[in-house]
Amino acid sequence: MVVDDDEFLADAVSTALRYEGFDTAVAGTRAEAVGAVQRYRPDLIVLDILLPDGSGLDLCRALRRSAQQVPVVFLTARDEPEERIAGLTIGGDDYLTKPFSLGELIARIRAVLRRSGSSGGPTPLVVAHLEIDVAAHQVRVGGQVVDLTPTEFELLHYLAVNAGTVLTKGQILDHVWQYDFGGNDGAVQTYISYLRRKVDTGHPRLIHTVQRIGYVLRPPEPTP
């Protein structure tokens, strides 16, 4: 769970974690976080210290007093040693100052989860009959393993993480092939065709073309 009143930052962290295969929930205040902890029972909390209705330090104290040992990684714009010591003393598991690297935050989250007894690995991403295991870099369709090239895997994973959202060809190029790729929209179309032949041969199909815009991986509508 990500607790931060900065909506842009909370969304960025949540999106990065989802891309790594984690389920996420977001709260913007201490009060929202208290309710969300009870509702979701998170495996780890990324907690801003300065919240609009109280302190993240106080929230961590309250969690520890209630015998909830959920790991906490503090985020703060302050880097005073006293605040860092306070955060770790009251039961925080790690401490990161803003601005920070999302890659470093995710690495620290995995390390804290490992220390707390969890594997720290993402759960498989499942959309209908499609399952993507990021840790094993493996894809199953209807329970059967399908061999994909690294680029095909990256493209399918990007579509699945954004299931239900139409992605433009430009967005796909920038994410899958990175900004220095010298290709064009034809590369996206070609690899979409590869994926359809390998993982989307059943009915209903998951990968859809949105004319003049791009592509979307859309789970089938539930049967009434």
List keywords for this structure.
Rossmann fold, CheY-like_superfamily, alpha/beta, transcription cis-regulatory region binding, Arc Repressor Mutant, subunit A, Two-component system OmpR family response regulator, phosphoprotein
Overview of the structural elements:
- The protein has 224 residues and is of the alpha/beta class.
- Helices cover 42% and strands 20% of the residues.
- The chain has helices at residues 7-19, 30-40, 56-65, 81-89, 102-115, 150-161, 169-177, 185-199; strands at residues 2-3, 26-27, 45-48, 50-51, 54-55, 72-76, 94-97, 125-127, 130-133, 138-141, 144-146, 167-168, 207-210, 214-217.
- It has a five-stranded parallel sheet with strand order 2-1-3-6-7, with helices on both faces. A four-stranded antiparallel sheet has the order 8-9-10-11, covered by helices on one side.
- Helix 6 packs across helix 8 (185-199).
- The protein is elongated, with a radius of gyration of 20 Å.
- The chain starts with a strand and ends in a 7-residue tail after the last strand.
- The model has no long low-confidence stretch (mean pLDDT 85).
